[in-house]
Every structure is written in structure tokens, then in C-alpha cells.
């Protein structure tokens, strides 16, 4: 669904390592002589600045304006996600339509850093002592509990989901990204812990400079194959689209059970069908 205009004007870059390249090649996805698989340019990272791969992964995630200084916009997709829409449509919907500079999804369940800290420690996501030091520092520097009922709250949530980020490379957006990365470098690579603190401090230190940030929930809109084919128009339509996808791009539509299995395979924490249209078109939510 990527338009010819986007193929001409958008750079599709995939950051990977040598092990992943070998795995892709063994599966038949061999980069061409220019380093492309399809329209994705593979960048093999070497001489890594951190021993912790979680921190290494935050460089392209949080500093795209430093890696691509001539780009006006960037879209970050976590490796668990797949690009489904044209990039220009994504920019139009999440940024241009209402004049935002930065867009990121909020967490499906947790909205307060207090809750996120407890969950990170409960699941042993990082060293507990370092998490406690980071949290104590943030509280001492003004971080407060999230209150959904507060009409003056700066954000609709203090905890991002973080697998999908859209940016305009404006001065304030770039500054926020650099400050956020500084916190990841200083404390833990758990960027959900430092997001709200970074945003609040940026706003506090620059009250005269607005920063237009959009927080949203990630959803996937796809046709859902019925478990059993029925002689209905909706069932026949989905079956036709399934065959068409297979013939043109080698893909397949999935049943709800297959989407649930996909969720587990890629270690998402939760999957649900939020609603349906015409019984076969589903709005699905995948949560990390």
C-alpha cells in the first residue's frame, strides 16, 4: 500500500545486525548488491557504543534526527510491527491534520509512572536498585502521580507504549528526543520510565515555547477470516481478498485465533478485537 510518491521520496531503513542478516538470507530474503530487501535498505550496525543491546536499540528509536540530519520527518516502527499504510498518510493523520510535532501511542493499561515502576520490578525488567535510584531522582525533581481527572494535566497518559513514534524534526521535537535519550543513557533503557519526566521538565524549562505532542492508542484494522467459511457475502468477500493477497504479494488474511497466536509468538502482552464492521472487518489492539 506504499504509493509511488512515497517510494520516491521516503527512505525505508531497517537497522539490523550480522546475525539477523544471516537468518534472513537462510530464509531466502537475500539483500541485493545495494543492500536492499524490497524497498527496505538494510543498515548493519557494528562497533556498538553500548554492551547493553537494549540501549543500542534506543539510538535509532530516539535519535533519528541525528542519524538522518536532512530528513524533515521520521516514523519509528518496532521490529514487532509491520508497515500497513503509506508513510505520507501516517504523517497526515498523526501530525499534519492537527499540527502536531511528535506522536506516540499511550499504554493500554498503565498511565502512571508509579505503576510502571512497580511493573518493571515485578517482571524484573532491569536492576531494581537502578530503577529505585531513577524513580527517587524523578520524584525529587518534581515528577508527580498521574491524575486522569486533573483538567490541567499535560498529557492524557504519563506512560507511552513506544513501539510506534512519528516525528517532525522541529527544534522542540529534536530537543525532547535528545533529552529523552540522555535519561535512557543515564539510568535504565526502560524508556517508559523517563518519558513523562522528560516531557514535564522540557515544558517547565521552556514555558514560552510550545511543544505539540499527540498521544494515541495503536490499532490494526484488518479483515478477519471466519473459522469456517459460510455462504454469506461477507465471507465470500474476505475469501476473495485472501486469495488476491496470496496471488499478488504472497500474504494471507488471518482468523482471530491466528492473530492471537501471532500476538503470543511476538511476545505482545495482550490482544483483543475492539469492534467489528460488516462482521468481517476487525479493529484489533495489540499491546506490548
TrEMBL record:
It comes from the Eukaryota. InterPro entries: SAM-dependent_MTases_sf, TOD1_MUCI70, TOD1_MUCI70_glycTrfase_dom. Signal peptide: none annotated. Residues 2-222 form the TOD1/MUCI70 glycosyltransferase-like domain. PANTHER family: ALKALINE CERAMIDASE-RELATED, TRANSMEMBRANE PROTEIN (DUF616). This is Isoliquiritigenin 2'-O-methyltransferase. It comes from Cajanus cajan (Pigeon pea).
